[in-house]
Amino acid sequence: MESSRPATAADIPRIVELAQLMRAELAAMRGGALWAAREAWPEPLEDAYGALLTRDEALLVVGTIDDVVVGHGAVVVEQLRSRARLGVVTDLFVEHEAREVGVGESMADALVAHCRGHHCIGMDAPALPGHRAAKNFFETHGFTARALVMHRRLDDSERP
């Protein structure tokens, strides 16, 4: 049965494996290389994800099928200049073979509940351009686009 739960320190090695799969998948997509260089958690991943476990305003979850970890998700609550709070989803990934069975939905529900509990006014969840599956997933769960980021490469020899 699919479910999710808060991550523990014992989950960090598996989360790092999943994060590496996520990076490989996203880096190959349009905008993915720049995402990996700017938005993805920095190396060493063990430290980056481990630090999330100690932050009250952050939540790191794992998604499971029959107690086997097949996905991970993370959200961080940011305080805006207005003093309002915004939840920012930094990770939501399920192994390819375990997709479309409810693991992602269970993790997304946990992230939303965390943000509600921290009195957030809303949540942001990035999706790369052309990543239709991610866009559709988030739209199914009540997310709508609120901004588009336009980018211009200045050096055509590099393909971030």
Can you summarize this structure?
With 160 residues, the chain is an alpha+beta fold. The protein has a single domain, classed as Gcn5-related N-acetyltransferase (GNAT) (Aminopeptidase, 3-Layer(aba) Sandwich), CATH 3.40.630.30. It contains five helices and five strands; from the N terminus they run E-H-H-H-E-E-E-H-E-H.
Description:
This protein is of the alpha+beta class and 160 residues long. It has one domain: Aminopeptidase (3-Layer(aba) Sandwich). It has 5 helices and 5 strands. The protein has a 5-stranded mixed sheet, with helices on both faces. The longest helix has 16 residues, at 12-27.
How are the SSEs placed, and which strands pair?
Blueprint: E1 2-6, H1 12-27, H2 32-38, H3 45-52, E2 58-65, E3 68-79, E4 85-94, H4 103-117, E5 120-124, H5 132-140
Parallel strand pairs: 4-5
Antiparallel strand pairs: 1-2, 2-3, 3-4
Helix pairs in contact: 1-2, 1-3
CATH topology: Aminopeptidase
Mean pLDDT rating: 95
Question: What is the CATH C level class, in words?
Answer: Alpha Beta
Q: Which spans of ≥5 residues are poorly predicted at pLDDT below 50? A: none
Secondary-structure element order, N to C: EHHHEEEHEH
Provide the spatial order of strands within the biggest beta sheet. Answer: 1-2-3-4-5
